[in-house]
Amino acid sequence: MIERLSIKVFSEEFKNKTERIFVTLSIVSFVIHLLLIFLKYLEILNFSDDKLLTNPIAAIYTPFSFILVYEVFLVIYYLPRSISQYIRKQYEIITLIIVRRIFKDMANIDVSANWFNQQYDLQLTYDLISTLVLFFIIFLFNYFNTRSKKLNPKKEKIENLDLFVKRKKTIALFLLPVLIFLAVSSLFKWIYIEVASIDQVFFSIQDINELFFNEFFTVLIMADVLLLLISLYKTDKFHEVFRNSGFIISTILIRLSFSADGLMNNVLIVSSVVYGFLMLILHIQFEKINFQFPKEVAIEEKESDKVI
């Protein structure tokens, strides 16, 4: 049953349909946001002075929110396929969250001689630098991960691999309804909190990180721990366990970043991606040693067993 469900839910066709839905939602939300800005400009609708409705640049913020939810779906989509791709998608999500924040900050930008004394200007500077660093590290992460697979095309048959993949599919299938529940509940919670003021319902979308991504990354941490535990059925190699443990630490750092403001938020995010990248590099080096010197590694493991 799990196999049938995973084939249907995590198929390329289902992914393409989901992508079209979210692209459509992004376009519609972008047009609606621009329309609200135009109506406020004409003073037909009387909203508050929040700059999300005074500057057209801020309209990009809204469609990015839907794109981010789709990226969350891709995290779950890639989980059964590859742990490294699954982690890379997490890094892409947190980078896009910063990009979305840049559009909001650009709507509040104050170009003056006091650039470094303005909160929005300072945060914009932090975010611009962070996105460049993150994009470069994600590029390196993807490059070294892809390159390592091409260099080592022939790998030894891993015992219990099929069972491990099935268990990853089970976790992914469990995460999908959790994602839907969190998205829907966060939406209703967002509306309920601001129901007393209709215009604030729209503006409070800037706090969606606290309502959705905060909780979702908490769920991801639990899923990562579960993946680490079931991976022990597949292998007990130190570098495999250490890499997966490092990825969990990386996800925790991302989760902690939602509780931090200003520069500390950027430091935690960049640190989490750098940490995960270094874990990947060390894992690849371990794999190279095992691939280039299989006999020596086997002898060393046997000697270690005798000592034990």
Number of strands: 0
Low-confidence stretches: 194-206
**Percentage of residues in DSSP E strands:** under 5%
Distance between the termini: 43 Å
Rg on CA atoms, Å: 23 Å
Biggest beta-sheet profile = none
What coarse outline follows from CA principal-axis ratios? globular
Total separate domains = 1
Q: H/E element string?
A: HHHHHHHHHHH
Overall structural class, as computed from helix and strand content, comes to mainly alpha
Query: What is the count of helical runs?
Result: 11
Q: Percent helix among the residues?
A: over 70%
User: Mean pLDDT, as a whole number?
Assistant: 78
Structural commentary:
The chain is an all-alpha fold and 308 residues long. The protein has one domain. The protein contains 11 helices and no strands. Helix 4 packs parallel to helix 9, helix 4 packs antiparallel against helix 10 and helix 8 runs antiparallel to helix 9. The radius of gyration is 23 Å and the shape is globular. It starts with a helix and ends with a helix. About 4% of the residues have low confidence.
Concise summary:
With 308 residues, the protein is mainly alpha-helical.
List keywords for this structure.
single chain, 308 residues, mainly alpha, 80% helix, globular
Helices and strands, with pairings:
Blueprint: H1 2-9, H2 12-41, H3 61-78, H4 83-107, H5 119-151, H6 161-193, H7 198-203, H8 208-234, H9 238-257, H10 262-292, H11 294-307
Helix pairs in contact: 1-6, 2-3, 3-4, 3-6, 4-5, 4-9, 4-10, 5-10, 6-8, 8-9, 9-10
